[in-house]
Known about the structure:
By secondary structure, the chain is mainly alpha-helical. It has 9 helices and 3 strands, in the order αβαβααβααααα.
Amino acid sequence: xxxxTKIIFGQTYSLLSHTTAALVTSGTATLExxxxxxxxxxxxxxxxxxxxxxxxxxxxxVKYISLVNxxxxxxxxxxxxxxxxxxxxxKQQLEAILPGQMTREKMLQDYDALIKILGQExxxxxxxxxxxxxxxxxYNKVLTVRLKEACYQFSLxxxxxxxxxxxxxxxxxxxxxxxxxx
Length: 182
């Protein structure tokens, strides 16, 4: 009748490196998916779809919900939100990003532009270092080592970029040493 479906947890980057196209919920996953150059459709279902759509159109001032579109300042990936999240819309948008489709090729080109906006390799390390440096200066070096490390880790999450996603221990240990020295 059908095929068995296996649900896998905790292997996002491994899965993305072998993925042709993805349905992704909003959040950092959209940016990570783009950095892996996987065409995607952002899906966000809510039971109060019509109400949320109304609020989005007339009250909320945020044009997009995905980090990809927010950073690009325009729609790079389709966002199916609230009452726009229907089976037919998902099917249509997913088919448009499969191999051989123009939408897919355009999205991949837009990903290249997005990667340029984010900066060269090592952006996460540079951003993390700047945040820790700023906080240390602002608070006259009274931040605890634990707080500095937490700020560093948080900034790495915020500024992950392609090959920086899997932080290697050498770079992490170097920054830990610098944080402890402050």
